[in-house]
């Protein structure tokens, strides 16, 4: 597969679309809350520096600025090119809106906030971040996390409202035969079990519901069991060796038994309220799964080898795009929940790190010294850059 193949182009486009939307929504959350509580936003950038293009409302019109790349600056003898678009009744604005060269990123620069830019200049003006009440600062810092959570909720709700969902049917009728890349044929299929067969007994013990069936099989990994099933009134029986599969849980990776069958699913359309409920449950579910997975990694129950970064996300986004754009949006919702969770962690350089510092200042009833905040941000950024580098190397090694 060449670099300019269709698959590569689809992967790059899907990654830029997915991560671009997620980051835009995240930064838009900070921007909206900052404006709402009266904090001046100096710059709103889609993408990370260096800047490519920016515009800003001024009293004499809209000023557009084109930033010349460094390798062209000597040729044109300029670092920027500016031009004005006249407007009737122009209205000045405080914010510079920018497009930057690095697509996987974005930022909101607020007046008087010591952040990743390591700008320690504050003047105590009423529109500065540090001049606002603690609850306003905390709400502004949480804006990105809130917006990512809302985005996930909206996508989950919209998808199930537009497409419906498959709900399991009661009973022990086999609806599908499972296969994976590692194991194309599971023991059930090898023994002759087919779709629409009804499992009636395991080791001579009758089973009448799917939960009872799976609970029996899952507790017997690696063991040989006797399975009885019905097909068109005829009864069949055979011994099946249960395969052992490793499954990650909050307590660590455990081994369960599987024979490779899935239950019957019935497609149903959901109304608006049911879809909203499903969206809320899905957002909560993936949020708790992320929290459990993170805790499992912290405790050592899950290896860091299972952690993916931007490259792995890009690859998965491409895989989803090839399956269909509905899958891309579903994937986007999951990543949006994960992004919200990661950003709220109390790590300097992340929203949670700012949240922690503001909370500490509220408890001690005075702001931390500016140089202390800058040192904290520097340590946090060094840690985050190291973590991103480590995860990226892992991603590349898995390609």
| Overall mean confidence score, pLDDT | 82
Euclidean distance between termini CA atoms:
13 Å
**Overall spatial form:** elongated
Structural class: alpha+beta
Residue runs with pLDDT of under 50 for 5 or more positions = none
How many discrete domains?
Answer: 2
Strand content: 15-25%
Order of helices and strands: HEEHEEHEEHEEHEEEEEEHHHHH
Strand order of the largest sheet: 3-2-1-4
Largest sheet: 4 strands, antiparallel
What's the total number of strands? 14
How many helix segments? Answer: 10
The value of Rg in angstroms is: 27 Å
Relative helix content: 40-55%
Note down, in words, how this protein is organized.
The protein is 46% helix and 25% strand. The strands form five sheets. It has a four-stranded antiparallel sheet with strand order 3-2-1-4, with helices on one face. A four-stranded antiparallel sheet has the order 8-7-9-10, covered by helices on one side. It has a two-stranded antiparallel ribbon with strand order 5-14. It has 399 residues and is an alpha+beta fold. It folds into two domains: 6-160 and 327-398, no CATH class; 167-267, Pdz3 Domain, CATH 2.30.42. The protein has ten helices and 14 strands. It is elongated, with a radius of gyration of 27 Å. It starts with 5 loop residues before the first helix and ends with a helix. The chain has helices at residues 6-36, 70-76, 134-163, 187-190, 210-218, 272-298, 310-323, 325-343, 351-364, 370-398; strands at residues 41-58, 61-67, 80-85, 96-110, 165-168, 174-177, 198-202, 205-206, 224-231, 234-241, 243-249, 252-258, 261-263, 265-268. A hairpin with a 2-residue loop joins strand 1 and strand 2 (61-67).
